[in-house]
UniProtKB/TrEMBL annotation:
This is ABC transporter ATP-binding protein. InterPro entries: AAA+_ATPase, ABC_transporter-like_ATP-bd, ABC_transporter-like_CS, ABC_transporter_ATP-bind, P-loop_NTPase. It holds the Pfam family ABC_tran. The keyword Nucleotide-binding applies.
Length: 252
């Protein structure tokens, strides 16, 4: 029932990736997944099923206990967390440059790349503001800009929009798709919101409760670029109902 066929010219290959933490918690059962370059994949599943663990393994932040992750070295990875984790004493532009400083990117290039990233997320004009003077949506935009300034080939996001109200969330989904369309990075996106997963993705991966494994992969048939009207079509609702039923089934 699991469709784990490799798409043509897979860029990322997870082979039997499993994780048991040192305290004995078995977070992930062996997971196989292949992703094509430029693909957008979302991970959906019950709380504690290992979504963040899998994302961190792909990001190289956590070692798998067994199995292999194949991803070309030159594919720079950027990670966006649920909490924007901004430095409150730094202005917006200096927050946007932070990761470039840590990477030792020369100053002139830092300024240029951070400023381009801020423009991309609609924060031009707020360079000298402090995080405390931004709304929640703007703080998340800044967190996205900070990661985009790295010019990643692989963009990993862990519930980045979950703390936002519905309207802000939908507008950030549209912005993210627009930026993804122009930058061409490959994305893995973790969310609890199945409509968000469907709206954004080529494929939605549904995971089982812990130890997480891939229960089912939904191919999302809607063409890109996607527009907000898609969310109110009967086809979108029907697919939503199907994914919801699958989630209920796996959570049982
Ligand atoms: N460092 C760790 N040490 C021990 N156990 C851990 C560690 N990190 C995560 N776990 C456990 O592994 C399991 C999977 O955690 P993970 O954070 O990947 O789940 P998740 O699917 O992202 O959940 P949520 O949807 O609530 O964010 C959980 O049972 C969690 O308690
Ligand atoms: Mg998580």
């Amino acid at each position: 029932m699991t469709d784990q066929k490799a798409p043509p010219a897979a860029l990322l290959h997870l082979r039997a990736v499993a994780k048991t933490f040192p305290n004995g918690t078995e977070a992930l059962a062996p997971v196989d997944l292949a992703m094509a370059g430029g693909e957008f994949v979302s991970l959906l599943g019950p709380s504690g099923c290992g979504k963040s663990t899998l994302l961190r393994i792909i990001a190289g932040l956590t070692e798998p206990s067994s199995g292999t992750v194949e991803l070309p070295d030159e594919h720079r990875r950027a990670f966006v967390f649920q909490d924007p984790t901004l430095l409150p004493w730094r202005t917006v532009d200096r927050n946007a440059r932070l990761l470039l400083e840590l990477e030792g990117v020369p100053k002139a290039e830092r300024l240029e790349r951070a400023s381009a990233a801020l423009k991309m997320v609609g924060l031009a004009g707020f360079e000298k503001s402090y995080p405390r003077n931004l709304s929640g949506g703007m703080r998340m935009r800044l967190s996205l800009a900070r990661a985009l300034a790295l010019r990643p080939k692989f963009f990993l996001m862990d519930e980045p929009f979950s703390a936002l109200d519905e309207i802000t969330r939908e507008s950030l989904q549209d912005e993210l798709l627009r930026i993804w369309g122009s930058e061409g990075f490959t994305s893995v996106f973790v969310t609890h919101n199945l409509y968000e997963a469907i709206y954004l993705s080529h494929r939605v991966v549904v995971m089982s409760p812990r130890p997480g494994r891939i229960e089912r992969i939904f191919e999302i048939p809607f063409e890109y670029p996607r527009s907000p009207e898609l969310r109110s079509t009967p086809e979108f609702s029907a697919l939503g109902a199907e994914v919801a039923a699958c989630l209920r089934e796996v959570s049982r």
